[in-house]
Amino acid sequence: MQDRVCYFSKDDLSLGHYLGMAEKRIQEVSKGDMPTDIEGIIELWHIKRMFENDCRLLKWDDKEYQTLKKQTSEYNKIIANFFNTLNPKTIKNEFELLEWGYKKSFWEIIDAYKLYKLLEPETLREILTENINYVHEVLECQGIVEKFKSIIREVLINNVNCVHILLEKYVAKQDLQGEKKIYLPSNLTIEDKEQMLINYLESDEPNINYVRLISQIKDCNQIKISPKTRLMADRLAQKLNDELMSSPTTIKTNWSVGIQFLDDEKNEPIELNIDEKGVPTYIYSIPYIKKCGNIRRVTNCISLFGWLNNHRMLNLINKRSEVDTMETLLIDKGKDAYPTYMVFSQKNRLSLYQLYGYRNALNTINSSYEGELKQFYEQYLKEVYDYPGLSINLPKDDDSAPNKCLIICPVLDAIIKQYNAFVVDGEIDKELIRLSKPLKVEQGKSILINKYYEIAEDNDDVKSVLYGLFGEGNSLLAYVEPFKNKNYHSLIDLLVNEEKVLYSNYHAYQKPHLDFLIKQGVIGVNSDGYVFIADPSMVSVLKSLWEYEACSYWHFGETERKTIDEMYAKGWLVKDNHLLSKPERDFFSYYLDNMKFTNGKAYRNHYLHGDTLSVDDINAHSVAYITFLELLTILLLKIEDDLWLARKAKTLQGEGKII
């Protein structure tokens, strides 16, 4: 398609190149050089869509742009008239001769101008049966789907590989911006959909990723699967995984890490050793721990283990900045599944190892981790912040692992219920607490009305800025002479490390994306033509939004808070007044229940609702208990942070409503 204009989206890096081509085509058509073949006509469709979406080159002034746009507005009649001359008997041949980039547009044009007479039912059946990719393209055209619903239903049911369409619509996570909605025929019933899934599970060569997605389906009004079908998917996924791991063609990688707590005065509080195989060993000093008071023994989970950053944002969440692009392509994650990618799994396993070793280390100095947590909540928070927390009951060391889980599980919700009462009423009334409805950790509120600022989901500008600066998918903005061989992963990575990035070295197709960032005031071009970070405070805020999907307002300095206020005023951000940020709430939800995520650990369900793990599986209960301790620690640290920030905000703003 090198000699034809193609419009993919406003954010596509090829847009600038194709806009230049479009300008020439518009001028040719205005002079009477009208296209005479179907590809030439479809090219006009692409040009028209560019201007409908307000795409323009910076070199065009408003008059030039409006003139070009007006000329393209006449293309509707040209396109419709040409397609009306096509012969339904030969339409299949016309379609097959199209370049791949224009085949999708063929269906869009028929749908947009309601030219359904061009499609004979048998012709449509032949096209869709021969290539499953065309089925997906047709399903993006609502009118065609409903007009030919009987044929399309038949094709979907008869081709087991069409199951990926169901999974894309109902299960798969949509990672790309601007992905088009797909429509299913109205006569495709819930029973039809489940049968399609069953047919796929019983097919000769099911794909393990699709099978895993089937097991992650969340029942709704549009799709439901029986427990029997779900169990079939679970068992098949395990069978396929076992076969994959035992195959001689499978390349396996091992992740190893060492944890040591040493009673040696010579050791620093934390040391990191990496052996000749690259295996890291974290070494922690017991003498240092022995010298720590209660507050330090709890906050060691920050200073030694790094569970939270200096803004008290949780590092253990899944971060998109830690997910490799190849991993997202190879491993399908359902939209209702928590994204447990490799780095997330590794750092959460590490945190459990750290806490397991830490508890044992405290036992050697006649302390207990549970006792430290109890003292932190009941005494420290009261002494320092005048927080009147009620007494909590934590397990004893000689309790069995299942009983420890049964004891600690309700403590999490009890603490958040107390803290929420304190936020709302300024006190904790024991009788009122007893009469109040249950409250999940994820529902707990902050004292601060503007505790967090998060990305406004309906604002494309802030998303484009984030992806432009930090997204590895936009690494083409980091691919510029003379730094191409340095393999910078993002534009911000390039600008932080290089001072002499010339704007003039960028290609025409890259410049519209740079110009957008310049217009937003994030980057600039100095008098020497070098690209630079124009607003470091905005980049600091955006970095937090990229990594943590939120920023903790009162942890920032005055300059950054002013920047956040401006971003909020522009509609880029929304306020959140929960104790936990949204990604942190998702983290807790993943471990505690399966209400939101179909792959959740559901520990709350297991131990509060009687759906317990096997009593004999002591290891599973032990892992669950360490996880509960970890969640409790995080919760207490977030409460302490909230109290500290509220005090800071009052100091800065004076007494009154904290906003």
Write the layout of secondary structure elements.
Elements: H1 15-30, H2 38-52, H3 62-72, H4 75-84, H5 91-96, H6 100-112, H7 121-130, H8 132-138, H9 142-147, H10 149-158, H11 163-170, H12 190-201, H13 208-215, H14 227-246, E1 258-262, E2 270-274, E3 280-285, H15 286-291, H16 294-303, H17 325-330, H18 342-364, H19 369-385, H20 401-425, H21 430-435, E4 452-455, H22 460-470, H23 491-497, E5 501-502, H24 511-519, E6 523-525, E7 530-533, H25 536-548, E8 550-552, H26 558-569, E9 573-576, H27 582-592, H28 603-608, H29 618-653
Parallel strand pairs: 1-3
Antiparallel strand pairs: 2-3, 4-8, 4-9, 5-7, 6-7
Helix pairs in contact: 2-4, 2-6, 7-8, 12-14, 13-14, 16-19, 18-29, 19-29, 20-29, 25-26
What brief labels describe this structure?
mainly alpha; three-stranded mixed beta sheet; three-stranded antiparallel beta sheet; 29 helices
Summarize the structure.
By secondary structure, the protein is mainly alpha-helical.
Explain what the structure shows.
This protein has 659 residues and is mostly helical. Among the domains are: 292-438 and 611-653, no CATH class; 452-576, no CATH class. The chain is 53% helix and 5% strand. It contains 29 helices and nine strands. It has helices spanning 15-30, 38-52, 62-72, 75-84, 91-96, 100-112, 121-130, 132-138, 142-147, 149-158, 163-170, 190-201, 208-215, 227-246, 286-291, 294-303, 325-330, 342-364, 369-385, 401-425, 430-435, 460-470, 491-497, 511-519, 536-548, 558-569, 582-592, 603-608, 618-653, and strands at 258-262, 270-274, 280-285, 452-455, 501-502, 523-525, 530-533, 550-552, 573-576. The strands form three sheets. The protein has a three-stranded mixed beta sheet with strand order 1-3-2. Strands 8-4-9 form a three-stranded antiparallel beta sheet. Strands 5-7-6 form a three-stranded antiparallel beta sheet. The longest helix is centred in the C-terminal third of the chain and has 36 residues, at 618-653. The chain is globular. The relative contact order is 0.08. The mean pLDDT is 90.
